[in-house]
Amino acid sequence: MTPAQFDVVGLGNAIVDVISRTEDAFLETWQISKNAMTLIEANRADELTRASVEALETSGGSGANTIAGLASLGGRGAYIGKVADDRLGQVFRDDMSRVGVPFNTPPLRGGTATARSIIFVTPDGARSMNTFLGASVEFCPEDVDSATVSASAILYLEGYLFDREAAKAAFVHAAEIAHKAGRRVALTLSDSFCVDRHRDSFRQLVRTQVDLLFANEEELLSLYETRDFDDAVEQLRSETGIAAVTRGEKGSVVIGDGDPIAVPALPVATVVDTTGAGDQYAAGFMFGLARGYTLANCAQLGHIAAAEVIGHYGPRPQASLRDLAAAAGFDL
Asked: Does pTM surpass 0.70?
């Protein structure tokens, strides 16, 4: 097998995040579901953008955030996703270039605008996401860069993108390319909202295409329609080779050969914003997996990355994750 040029290539919704602080009363006034992701249309996106106060505008999207975190660890990442030929599309390209991540998907011309997620963060650190998918969901199999997928040790699929038939076909197409090249395929369930909408399709993907699954506890319980965590873990063990399930302050549970491994989370002095915590956990985990670390060490790297991002506003690292991992004793 040809050595991988990239550790991970992410395939997902290319979104620009608009992040601002607010109070719970604001969420109630605007009828925003707290600590959840809600899909919205263009008019609603414009209204909420205007209502945002002192907003931080930064490239986001779950998969892109993960690849940015991978780069902060010193990993080699690439990204595939769809933006429009507009101002926010250029913002997204510039941000990916700034962190050293190739992003070469041709833009959508003459159609809908670049996707954006208007995120309101309350004092308790909860993030309420209002997402206009725009050009991102125009992604189709023809947008899959087969050379980049084949050259990546891991293909990372973002569940948020899984909302149209063309995107589903692109997922399967990309996974087939990766497996033909002898690479691993990873999937993040992204949100329990996504699982509720696409449960059967996700289950099929997990059974037939996925080598590594990322989920949080609620997503896992939704996937298997149970409230018994141990039961859900056992069902997952029967359907995929490796999985990492995050449980907030309880840490994570990693599934591989043998018994599940419980890995504690790192203490965080103040939780400022949980946006991107799962994305950065996946970045640390896949960095370790691509470099041949044990599953426990992969999870530890994931927790280092997650702890950094929840200590500030925004979904991407502000400190060097590589330096933080080195300080924790990792020889990268």
From this structure: yes
